[in-house]
Design goal:
- The protein is mainly alpha-helical and 210 residues long.
- It has one domain (4-143, 197-208).
- It has seven helices and four strands.
- The strands form two sheets. It has a two-stranded antiparallel ribbon with strand order 1-4. A two-stranded antiparallel ribbon has the order 2-3.
- It is globular and about 55 Å long.
- It starts with a helix and ends with a strand.
Amino acid sequence: MINIKFYNYFWIFMFGSVFGVASESLWRLVTRGIFVTRVGLIYGPFNPVYGIGLVLITLCLVNFSDRNILFVIFLGALLGGSFEYFTSVAQQAIFGTISWDYYKFSYNINGRINIPYTIFWGLTGAIWIKVFYPSIKDLISKIPRNPGVLITYLLLLFMILDMSISTAAVYRESERYQNIPPQNFAEIFLDTHYPDDFLHKIYPNMKKTH
């Protein structure tokens, strides 16, 4: 039987992966009048960065949900800002790309985070842990166990495959950018089915850094 903590946090991860994409896409539509997809995977409306971020916030803030709201906001801002900075560094180191930069904003740190957005992380974390998390946790507990576990396993398998193919496709794109020819059947497959123009439609905000 699946571990109950893993079960709960997997569904929080899925919720964050979808809700993060929907909320940021809606925000850009309202503020800029354009629809920009913020998905992080090739298949489905998912972005694991949002999902992992929500799980991390939940794990770190759940024991402070009864503390003063300003303390929770500060802790959420510190956590969210650190996570966003680390994610940006890791993406650039592995793929030679970035998906956001804040150089045009005041109070930015190396263009990877800025103070207003970090405060937004804190507000989001406080609202999540104090308002929404108890209801979401209760909702998860009401999912019938047998079908819930089966769906969890199926979704877990799908997400592993989706993240694997997405990571491989983006990494292979970085190799094509360096004029590295395909070395095996897998790389030929990636070049054929996930060419640059296809990936640019999936990740329109991703930019090369070298």
